Amino acid sequence: MAAGAALLMLISLMGLGSVHAQMEGLTPEMMQGGQISPEMLNMMQKKNREGKPAMFFLTFVADDRETNERLSGDYVTALRQAHHEIQVYFIEDDKALYSIQDGKHLDEILDYLKAQDNIAQIELDSQKLMKPHPKDEVSKTKVDQADSERRAKEERLRKAQRRINKAKAKKAKKGQVKGKTEL
């Protein structure tokens, strides 16, 4: 009983009053040990997104901006033919921000994009929706390698600067010694 009241309170806090009517018909299968089932949670999230804008990031497999813009144009054309209004803003050569005006159809759009071979990752609400792509590992390896190379270069520069400073100090010391003996 307390779990049901807590669930109704959660729904009202989330602003899902329209779902409240559906909650009256909540079956035991929809509740799992006093918890909301994944199906019910998914329904509530869909209802909460309805009529609100939604944004997500899409990472392409290719690093070439021209290729990715062409692919993105193809995807947007297909989605617009399915009556989904979508805007795309490239933020990197291989990464774009997709924006839709009505989040009601977000799941359909994401399913379509996940099925495309040229997409490495989709990120929604800081959650990666696809399996890790080999590109992610390559990028991580490249970043790690670049960091290692940068640290090694900095260390070589520090050593060279210490040698130069040592040589200057030695030269200055010799000059002082010669100057004293000549007097």
From TrEMBL:
Organism of origin: Monosiga brevicollis
Q: Where is the composition biased (Basic residues)?
A: 159-177
Q: Which domain of life is it from?
A: Eukaryota
Protein's UniProt keywords contain Endoplasmic reticulum:
yes
Compositional bias of kind Basic and acidic residues: 131-158
Tell me the leader sequence span. 1-21
Q: Where is this region: Disordered?
A: 131-183
Q: Show the InterPro entries listed in the entry.
A: MESD
Biological process according to GO: protein folding; Wnt signaling pathway
Write down the Pfam families for this protein, in alphabetical order. Answer: Mesd
Q: What does the entry list under GO cellular component? A: endoplasmic reticulum
- Family the UniProt entry places it in: Belongs to the MESD family.
Query: Mainly resides where?
Result: endoplasmic reticulum
Q: Where in the cell is it found?
A: Endoplasmic reticulum
Key word Endoplasmic reticulum present? yes
Q: Which PANTHER family match?
A: LRP CHAPERONE MESD (PTHR17600:SF2), MESODERM DEVELOPMENT CANDIDATE 2 (PTHR17600)
Per UniProt, the keywords (alphabetical) are: Chaperone, Endoplasmic reticulum, Signal, Wnt signaling pathway
Q: What is this protein called?
A: Uncharacterized protein
